[in-house]
Amino acid sequence: MKSSLFAAALGALAAACASAAPSPADPFDFRQAALVYPRMNDGVAQGQASLVGNGQCRNSNGSSLSGYQPALYTESVRPQIHFSPTVNFMNDPNGLVYSNGTWHLFYQYNPTQNVAGNQHWGHAVSTDLYHWKNLPIAIAPEKEGEGIFSGNAVIDFENTTGFFNGSTPKDQRIVAMYTLNTDTSQTQHLAYSSDGIHFTKYPGAVISRNQTQFRDPKAFWDEKSSRWIVALALSQEFGIVFYSSPNMKDWTEVSRFQSYGILGYQYECPDLFQVPVEGGPDDGKMMYVLAISINPGALIGGSFVQYWVGDWDGSKFTPRDNAVRTMDFSKDFYAFSSWNNSPGKKAYAIAWANNWQYSQQVPTSPFRSIQSLPRELTLKYYRPTPQFGDLILNNRPVNLSAIHGKTLYKSENGNSARNQTVNLSGQGAFDITATFKLPANANITYNTIASFEIFAGDGKQSVKTGIQMGEPAVAYIDRRGAGQSFAAQNPFFTDKTSGIIRYAANYTTASSENADQYVLGPLPPSAYLDSTDQAQYIKLQAVVDRSVIEVFVNDGELAGTSVFYFDNDQIPSKVTVSVGDNKLQLVDLEVRALNSIWSKCKE
Ligand SMILES: *[C@@H]1O[C@H](CO)[C@@H](O)[C@H](O)[C@H]1NC(C)=O
Ligand SMILES: *[C@@H]1O[C@H](CO)[C@@H](O)[C@H](O)[C@H]1NC(C)=O
Ligand SMILES: *[C@@H]1O[C@H](CO)[C@@H](O)[C@H](O)[C@H]1NC(C)=O
Ligand SMILES: *[C@@H]1O[C@H](CO)[C@@H](O)[C@H](O)[C@H]1NC(C)=O
Ligand SMILES: *[C@@H]1O[C@H](CO)[C@@H](O)[C@H](O)[C@H]1NC(C)=O
Ligand SMILES: *[C@@H]1O[C@H](CO)[C@@H](O)[C@H](O)[C@H]1NC(C)=O
Ligand SMILES: *[C@@H]1O[C@H](CO)[C@@H](O)[C@H](O)[C@H]1NC(C)=O
Ligand SMILES: *[C@@H]1O[C@H](CO)[C@@H](O)[C@H](O)[C@H]1NC(C)=O
Ligand SMILES: *[C@@H]1O[C@H](CO)[C@@H](O)[C@H](O)[C@H]1NC(C)=O
Ligand SMILES: *[C@@H]1O[C@H](CO)[C@@H](O)[C@H](O)[C@H]1NC(C)=O
């Protein structure tokens, strides 16, 4: 289906940004604030406010939650730490923008059915990227047959649009850009808000091309050329087209990024954003990444995201090389989008954790689909092979300490060399992290596997993840045993996925002959990695949340996201951590319960 889209908007005037927005070193150092946004009311009529209590517990369409039985957000398959709408169908994240302490998450939403269609922009806000508060629908279509498709949002600090007067603080001037979909066209439109809740549509299209496959604007203030830039997908021409504008209303085409990577059937959701380099002498330096979502046509079926690291000169994106890279090896990570205006030179992003191959059939009710964990992105230097250097997008969950609950098990320093089983008691969401050691010169077998098996309450159904050692080592997710009634029936619910684990790479010192830290491609023979006589350590983290598992290897060097559906309303109840042929050692294990982000909605 021609669905999704999204886009976001990056920075804004750098100077204004630095002076107006607080930029704490770590914006997640604080717990959930009682008030998300001082100028923001709940969007609920005064008289109704007492009925709904905490605004977090309002319906995604803005109505009161009272009367729902069972209470929403308590359903057995409902993830407890991932964002989902109260009822009905959600897809792409949209309008991701940070404004004065508040992270906005808009999303593609059908408020009337539990399948895609009738697209609106739903809305939620957070102060820590985990605890979300539902707000009323932000942007709705006006006519039967029209849809408000994906797009993104920027902060118009300097009022370039002319939409704001002096009563709206500079860092709260939110302008959304979205695609209006009709039977005969896809055109690009603006809507703006002074209170972060209510949006006013700017009349007429700001970009149109007599095109039915032209969508997902991602706008940002470009510091290099001092103007707005927007990336849009010419979906079925496999083109990303860039436009520039002084005011977001008058746009001029400036360049194209055409026919790169895996084409599939459609390009969607382009996102050009800046990411800090992590480690080495260029630590903290920002570089550009262009991400494109493809649907269908992923090599493992359906929807996936590919990206390029490259240079942006103010008009044109030039990738550093022609290789396709992906940031998630599994099947349920699509419509990736980054937050605009993130504080502290950091990059944060989220994706829709599902796949169009089955997203409208998955057995969840009364809602369908969740967003992934929020991810913190960096660019890190790795070796995909011992002889090759590469700069990859590292992708790990935003600091989970905001939702950490009880520690269910913890061991360190080799005290848990044997297999361990830990009961998972809590609300169905857990963070399981282990470090495994392969001693030097161990002779590995096919079964030199370290794994987590997460069981449902019946002790039979399970979802697994693990690492098989070798050259290279690979990580996998296996959801085949997680409930036959959906998995076995659906021809596209690919049950096993895997990805290659890269080798750690040391940064060369500036004085060495190979001073370019970010060399791409073959390394000189003197730099070949020799792992003989060295023990290898691998860290595996699984965040499991009732019906989704997200796996991270070596703190985000590799990530995989899979939804799964246990039969009979079961939730995760036990994890067994094991090593296949006892060549690997389990040196560290920590299992923590994660606290539901929706607990305030329970009576
Ligand atoms: C996460 O946040 C906690 C609490 O602020 C802090 O102690 C911890 O170091 C942070 N962890 C990471 C990996 O940043
Ligand atoms: C909001 O959604 C609920 C549940 O689908 C529905 O009963 C209610 O009528 C909707 N309210 C509005 C204002 O659309
Ligand atoms: C931004 O948020 C802070 C803390 O909530 C508040 O004190 C301040 O007034 C806000 N700034 C503006 C410009 O509204
Ligand atoms: C924003 O621009 C509009 C149109 O030019 C103008 O009327 C308004 O006063 C401006 N607002 C501010 C805060 O400068
Ligand atoms: C400024 O803008 C706000 C929000 O759009 C509006 O409520 C207010 O009336 C405007 N003030 C003036 C002086 O135009
Ligand atoms: C728009 O495209 C349609 C279909 O290709 C074509 O029939 C029509 O003439 C085009 N309109 C304009 C104004 O170019
Ligand atoms: C784990 O749970 C099972 C079943 O409820 C129970 O029999 C067992 O004693 C528990 N184990 C631990 C270590 O608490
Ligand atoms: C690995 O295999 C080699 C060749 O068979 C043998 O010499 C060596 O002792 C083995 N290493 C270990 C740790 O078992
Ligand atoms: C990286 O450097 C450290 C310290 O110099 C060394 O111990 C380690 O073996 C190196 N790792 C690799 C993969 O070269
Ligand atoms: C650990 O579990 C694996 C697989 O379940 C099994 O093959 C192995 O023998 C177990 N090791 C120990 C020490 O119990």
Automatic annotation (TrEMBL):
Record-linked Gene3D superfamilies: Exo-inulinase, domain 1 (2.60.120.560), Glycosyl hydrolase domain, family 43 (2.115.10.20)
Membrane listed as a keyword: no
Residue stretches making up the Glycosyl hydrolase family 32 N-terminal domain: 82-380
The keyword Hydrolase belongs to this UniProt entry's keyword annotation: yes
Swiss-Prot/TrEMBL GO biological process terms: sucrose catabolic process
Domain called Glycosyl hydrolase family 32 C-terminal: residue spans: 412-575
GO molecular function, one term: sucrose alpha-glucosidase activity
Entry keywords, A to Z: Glycosidase, Hydrolase, Signal
Residues in the signal sequence: 1-20
GO cellular component annotations of the record: fungal-type vacuole
Highest taxon, organism lineage: Eukaryota
InterPro entries for the chain: ConA-like_dom_sf, Glyco_hydro_32, Glyco_hydro_32_AS, Glyco_hydro_32_C, Glyco_hydro_32_N, Glyco_hydro_beta-prop_sf
UniProt family annotation: Belongs to the glycosyl hydrolase 32 family.
Name of the protein described by the UniProt record: Glycosyl hydrolase
